[in-house]
């Protein structure tokens, strides 16, 4: 019986240690923003685009649901159903593109070659801009279909 509280206490310490590690990494990133990292401005621009587009996942979900409801309407023409299915596929693809970008985004540490880090961030800037275009384009098509602004 005494081993259970010991294990719980050990787990608590491990979790607390993980939280401190995360805080430490975050403070190191903030220190990089003070000028130690010459690529920080480019990193911030990439993240600004991410922060602009990421919240649109909720809108993608909402519009997708509305289109699915429209597909479920009785007497919908086959061609119209195919068109709406294609629109759902575009919304899904845009959302998956954002998730894929986020999972693959791994900026180089400050200790890395700054030229390589800059090149990486420039490539990521192009990738996230394409994701933004894809998300905004699919959202606009869905809104047009649903008669929304």
Task: Explain what you see.
- By secondary structure, this protein is mainly α.
- Helix content is 83%, strand content 0%.
- It contains 5 helices and no strands.
- The protein has helices at 3-36, 40-53, 56-71, 78-104, 114-146.
- Helix 2 runs parallel beside helix 5 (114-146).
- The protein is elongated, with a radius of gyration of 22 Å.
- It starts with a helix and ends with a helix.
What is this structure, in a nutshell?
The protein is mainly α.
Features:
149 residues; mainly alpha; 5 helices
Task: Give me the secondary-structure topology.
Blueprint (H helix, E strand, L loop, with lengths): L2 H34 L3 H14 L2 H16 L6 H27 L9 H33 L3
Structural class: mainly alpha
Count of separate DSSP helical elements: 5
Element pattern in H and E: HHHHH
Number of DSSP E strands: 0
Overall pLDDT score: 81
Q: In percent terms, what proportion of residues is strand?
A: under 5%
Describe the sheet with the most strands: none
Percent of residues in helices comes to over 70%
Rg from alpha-carbon coordinates: 22 Å
Overall geometry comes to elongated
> How far apart are the first and last residues' alpha carbons, in Å?
63 Å
Low-confidence residue ranges? 3-34
Oligomer: single chain
């Amino acid at each position: 019986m005494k081993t259970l509280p010991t294990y719980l206490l050990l787990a608590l310490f491990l979790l607390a240690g993980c939280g401190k590690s995360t805080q430490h990494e975050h403070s190191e990133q903030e220190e990089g923003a003070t000028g130690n990292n010459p690529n920080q401005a480019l990193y911030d621009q990439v993240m600004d685009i991410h922060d602009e587009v990421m919240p649109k996942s909720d809108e993608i979900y909402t519009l997708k649901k509305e289109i699915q409801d429209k597909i479920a309407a009785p007497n919908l023409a086959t061609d119209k159903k195919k068109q709406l299915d294609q629109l759902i596929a575009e919304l899904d693809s845009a959302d998956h593109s954002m998730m894929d970008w986020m999972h693959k985004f791994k900026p180089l540490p400050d200790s890395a070659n700054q030229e390589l880090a800059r090149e990486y961030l420039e490539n990521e800037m192009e990738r996230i801009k394409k994701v933004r275009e894809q998300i905004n384009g699919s959202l606009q098509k869905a809104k047009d279909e649903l008669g929304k602004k």
